[in-house]
Design brief:
The complex is a heterodimer of chains A (about 350) and B (about 325). Chain A has about 350 residues and is of the alpha/beta class. Chain A contains eleven helices and seven strands. Chain A has a five-stranded parallel sheet, sandwiched between helices. The radius of gyration of chain A is 20 Å and the shape is globular. Chain B has two domains: about 180 residues, Rossmann fold (3-Layer(aba) Sandwich), CATH 3.40.50.970; about 130 residues, Rossmann fold. Chain B is globular, with a radius of gyration of 19 Å. Classes of the chains: A alpha/beta (about 350), B alpha/beta (about 325). Chains A and B meet through loops of A and helix 3, strand 14 and helix 11 of B. The structure holds thiamine diphosphate.
Chain lengths: ~350, ~325
């Protein structure tokens, strides 16, 4: 696997092998954690919904590992980026607490499931309205430019459906005009909820849009971890070196329902048996073994460790209290002297 | 037979499609999937080419529907959640709502908004947006609270020559059942007395009608007879029915699930105090959700929105005055 050279990079995964191994471990951690949340959802312990990134872990982790939060990079994950969030540096406990409604969570149980972030760390707290977080990532880059911090880049995630929003178009065009160091990762998982891509866009490949926006484009098999790591590393380097926004399309398949409430019966056998239907975790595991970078015993050991880690995070979050409405401030304003209170008169 | 609020919405659309060849349905996942809530279940198969999946492009969904009306079409749009209609506000409020006034050509679109809070819905899947749309001249805004109204008002919405924002409450989708669909019902624009009483009037709409009915049951045990007015339609508001009720009871509480600033409660109280001040024996009260985004956690969500207990306690304050 070719390794892109990053100028002045402090990337801790200095060679392909260590990065690949680290990436795989994040993928596994995300997979095991999400399967646990799905079980908790079915057991009625999680309300609202559970949204998994099954089948998208390689693509998700690829972007996140090309970013470096210690360098000021900014990350805008979306619903299927548990793997990327972990790789960027979000604590597993933050995810468990948000899903399980713990008052100790980063969103104080005001928000749930994937609607979480960490602004100081550089993680945009997504709202549901698809596409609207892209320009927010851009804004952080613009802000950094104002403050003389020129080194940082942004990475932002969206699905194929999300590319149909006006917000996506406006943000891409704006980022191109501003020549922002922004890597836009589009996970084309063939469906937006039940809607297949042929009801979503009419171009052959979403990467065709890159030329229209005047940005550099990359289109890859999103089930191949090597390719994902490599492409995002290159795209991040291009962005950092001043070549402007990078549009990376990953072709893959959602290997789960839209949420855990959805049996995804609309996904055909043809899709499942098709080239993008393979499970990126299996593919990566085979590669690790065949390349000699790891072996089954080590992977089993990782899995055991991860299961403990997941158990620890979820049971901790489950033991913690939920929010108490009498302790809640019920204030949406930062400027408390201007807050009106909640009059019922 | 028993039919839910959600099934009534499906049935109304089925009938609208059957009776008028110019009706079509457009929205995300509404086709063979039948919609995120199954409000268009089976319709794509029954009416080929007329129940169409839209890309995730709310602005263009509404814009294209506005254009289609000029060719004689009568589109029904489904927003996946009311909250996402904010993206189409420009088209709804600036394009659709102004068209008739600007050109004399009506714009008969119906925009369905799955509205209101449910457990675990959180800030972006729970909003009640009726007051925002009602602010804009040129729109009709409907908020059915019963299975019968969900059916008859949606059918009527499709026949109205103005843009209609149809706020259907997600909490009622499965909770509410009726024995059958109505042949005849009150028309759009008329409020309904959901319960008669003589000591105080609660004016409310949508899911809060049911919370108010429960509060009235509680107060009945305490010796109070509470009258409940279900507005049904937010714009136009049936001020006459409200004033007539306040004339009988002398006391008014307005209840809405929406945020407190402005809104339907403020509108009703303003009309009653200016047109019926002499009818009031006590200052009118209002009860809204709290002035924060809608919380995810059920503990917080239950405290954020009005519910039968808080309505009962507001009523006790009102009756004590
Ligand atoms: C503006 C907007 N409209 C509608 C929705 C409702 N919605 C949530 S996820 C989703 C499908 C998203 O599909 P895609 O972008 O392809 O991402 P995927 O779920 O496949 O990862 C829809 C329609 C939304 N979140 N935002």
């Amino acid at each position: 696997m070719a390794e892109a050279k990053i100028k002045g990079s402090k990337n801790k995964y200095c060679d392909s092998e260590s990065r690949y191994r680290a990436a795989f471990r994040y993928m596994l951690l995300a997979r095991v954690f999400e399967e646990r949340t799905a079980n908790l959802y079915r057991a009625g312990k999680i309300v609202g919904g559970v949204f998994m990134g099954k089948g998208q872990e390689a693509f998700s982790v690829g972007l996140a590992l090309a970013l470096d939060k210690n360098r000021g990079d900014v990350y805008g994950p979306l619903i299927r980026d548990q793997a990327g969030r972990l790789a960027f540096g979000e604590a597993l406990l933050d995810a468990a607490r948000t899903y399980l409604g713990s008052i100790e969570g980063p969103m104080k149980a005001r928000e749930g499931n994937v609607h979480r972030g960490n602004i100081p760390m550089g993680i945009i707290p997504m709202i549901s309205h698809l596409g609207s977080h892209i320009s927010v990532v851009s804004g952080r880059l613009i802000g950094k430019r104002f403050c003389g911090q020129k080194d940082a880049i942004g990475g932002v995630c969206i699905g194929d459906g999300g590319t149909s929003t006006g917000a996506f178009h406006e943000a891409l065009n704006q980022a191109a005009v501003e020549k922002l160091p922004l890597v836009v990762a589009v996970a084309n998982n063939q469906f937006a909820y039940s809607t297949p891509t042929d009801r979503q866009f009419a171009c052959d490949d979403l990467v065709d849009r890159a030329i229209g926006y005047g940005v550099e484009g990359h289109s890859i098999d999103g089930t191949d971890l090597s390719l994902c790591l490599d492409t995002f590393q290159k795209a991040a380097t291009r962005a950092r070196e001043g070549y402007g926004p990078q549009l990376v399309i990953g072709h893959l398949l959602r290997l789960c329902g839209h949420g855990e409430h959805d049996d995804a019966s609309y996904i055909s056998e043809k899709h499942k048996q098709g080239v993008f239907g393979r499970d990126c975790v299996d593919v990566a595991q085979q590669y690790l073994i065949s390349s000699g970078w790891s072996n089954l015993a080590e992977i089993e050991q990782w899995t055991a460790e991860i299961q403990k880690e997941v158990e620890k995070a979820t049971s901790c979050a489950q033991r913690e209290s939920g929010p108490d409405p009498f302790q809640e401030t019920w204030q949406a304003l930062a400027t408390t002297r201007l807050a009106e209170g909640n009059s019922t008169a | 037979m028993s039919i839910t609020y959600l099934e009534a919405i499906q049935a109304a659309q089925d009938r609208a499609l059957a009776e008028n060849e110019f009706v079509y349905i457009y929205g995300q996942d509404v086709g063979s999937f039948g919609g995120a809530f199954k409000a268009t279940k089976n319709l794509a198969a029954k009416y080929p080419g007329r129940v169409i999946d839209a890309p995730i492009s709310e602005d263009a969904m509404v814009g294209s529907a506005i254009g289609a009306t000029a060719e004689g079409m009568r589109p029904i749009l489904e927003m996946q959640f009311a909250d996402f209609s904010t993206i189409a506000i420009n088209q709804i409020c600036n394009q659709a709502a102004t068209q008739f006034w600007r050109t004399g050509i009506p714009c008969p679109i119906t925009v369905r908004l799955p509205s209101g809070g449910t457990e675990g819905g959180g800030p972006f899947h729970s909003q009640s947006m009726e007051a925002i749309y009602a602010q804009y001249p040129g729109l009709i805004v409907l908020t059915p609270a019963t299975v019968e109204d969900a059916y008859s008002m949606l059918l009527e919405a499709v026949t109205i020559d103005d843009p209609v924002v149809f706020c259907e409450h997600k909490y009622l989708y499965y909770h509410l059942k009726a024995d059958q669909l109505p042949d005849k019902n009150l028309p759009v624009g008329k409020a309904r007395i959901a319960r008669t009483g003589k000591h105080a009037t609660v004016v409310t709409y949508s899911a809060m009608v049911h919370e108010a009915l429960r509060a009235a049951d509680t107060l009945e045990e305490e010796g109070w007879e509470i009258e409940i007015v279900d507005l049904r339609s937010i714009k136009p508001i049936d001020t006459d029915t409200v004033l007539a009720s306040v004339a009988r009871t002398g006391r008014l509480l307005c209840v809405s699930e929406a945020f407190p600033w402005g809104g339907v409660n403020a509108e009703v109280i303003s009309r009653v105090t200016s047109e019926g001040f002499h009818l009031l024996d006590a200052p009118p009260k209002r009860l809204n959700a709290k002035d924060t985004p809608i919380p995810f956690h059920p503990n917080l969500w239950k405290a954020h929105r009005p519910a039968s207990q808080s309505i009962a306690s507001s009523l006790r304050d009102l009756l004590r005055y």
